[in-house]
Amino acid sequence: MRALEGFRILDFSHVIAGPFCTAQLGLLGAEVIKVEAPEGDYMRGRGGDDALRRIGMGDHFAVQNGNKRSIVIDLQTDQGRALARRLAARADAVVENFRPGVMARLGLDYATLAAANPRLVMCSLSGFGAEGALAERPVYDNVVQAFSGLMAMTGTAESGPLKAGAPMLDYASGTMAAFALTAALLRRERTGQGQHVELSMLDTAFLLMGPVISSLLNGGRAPRLHANEHALAGASCYAAADGALIMLGACTQRQFETLCRRIGRADLLDDPRFADVRRQDPHRAALSEILAAEMRRRPAAEWEALLADTVPAARVRSLVEALNDSDAAGRGVVAEAPWPSASGRVAIPVAAWRAAADGPSLDRAPPRLGEDTDAVLAEAGLEPDEIATLRASGALG
Asked: What is the CB-side half-sphere exposure of residue 394 using CA atoms within 13 A?
């Protein structure tokens, strides 16, 4: 039995962070009911295949919507909002990532929903938090990367600040939301009390920059654009003989000593400037120049083969190369589900962990828009004539 089997999650979230949170809950067995507006989640129209985007089944939607059922409710109608409250009354949790204040204007805020369902747990995820001058700002991952200072330490003097190549803050925030919601459900099981948990992408960005923030607040050391450099020269990136890049990770004393011996520079261990990794800071530039010259003596793949068994090291790979690595592929992070594509399948990265028993599992393909509306409403106790009336009113899109 998976950990969240028997829990019902009413998912009002859209785009990436919120849907990724609920997808993780679904992988652990929760029943996730995705509530979509009549036009559907924005991500249905995103992905690499024009034909799939046109029918609202873009692969970007697939990534964070497996193991869910989709219903359509128009929350701009009185009947739609009343129906949403009715469904929330029988849910264990509600997840939403609208701008702060939207759920209250819809009459779907925690106080209203908890009055009918005191055991309800609600998770609200926003860009800048629920309060303050920033709360009302519309926001996406790239905007938070810019605001948080993350971009200001990523890049080179030539490039200037750069954002990460993937929406890291969306996925990190979704992961944090899944963790927060699961913790709140566990507390509810022990105390019988529901609660409202709230988190922001900005808070997540600060959390991810923990060591950098600590150095700034406690030591006055402001971050800078440091390209592929690490504070330690032995844990930085260098160009190899073939022009490819090799990333080193010699952070500990033992790793640095091994690195020096493997590259034929044991003499560096006799140099008082470099011998102790804890005292290399004032001489980092000199050590980096030496290591750069050494790395240019061999191709990156040769360095990786020579070092990686004892010193953390990797040739900088393309995504295609990384996915085609047999050991990486064997981890099982990517699963497949039926999909209306030419191949009839879609590949989806799922959970980044495995369990000895009852771990995360992709059991159900991401849903077509509204495909489960009638079934979910019938399970909630609505009679066929009630569903027909709601559809006639426009509440179901």
From this structure: 5
Cα dihedral: 190, 192, 198, 203 (round 10) = -10
User: d(Cα 209, Cα 214) in Å, to the nearest integer?
Assistant: 9
Q: What residue segments make up the domains of the chain, in order of their start?
A: 8-140+166-208+332-393, 233-324
* DSSP string computed for 227-277: TT--SSGGGSEEE-TTS-EEEE---SHHHHHHHHHHTT-GGGGGSTTTSSG
Task: Please write the tens of the pLDDT for every residue from 254-293.
Answer: 999 999 999 999 999 999 999 999 999 999 999 999 999 9
Whole-angstrom Cα distance, residue 162 to residue 49?
27
At the fourth CATH level, the homologous superfamily of domain 8-140+166-208+332-393 is: Crotonobetainyl-coa:carnitine coa-transferase; domain 1 (3.40.50.10540)
Residue 170: active-site member? yes
User: What CATH number does the domain located at 233-324 have?
Assistant: 3.30.1540.10
Read off the pLDDT of residues 205-251 as tens digits, 9 standing for 90 and up.
999 999 999 999 998 988 888 889 999 999 999 999 999 999 999 99
Calculate the alpha carbon distances from 67 to 24, 47, 125, 148 in Å: 9, 19, 21, 33
Q: Which residues fall within 8 angstroms of residue 63, CB to CB, at 6 or more apart? A: 20, 348, 349
The amino acid at residue 3 is A
Beta bridge partners of 95: 11, 123
Out of 170, 203, 325, 358, the active site residue is 170
DSSP string, 3-43: TTTT-EEEE---TTHHHHHHHHHHHTT-EEEEEE-TT--GG
pTM (whole model) above 0.90: yes
Question: pLDDT tens for residues 65-101?
Answer: 999 999 999 999 999 999 999 999 999 999 999 999 9
- CB contact burial 74-85 (16+ within 10 A = b; e otherwise): bbebebbbebbb
Output the six-digit token pair for 316.
């900088």
d(CA 251, CA 164): 24
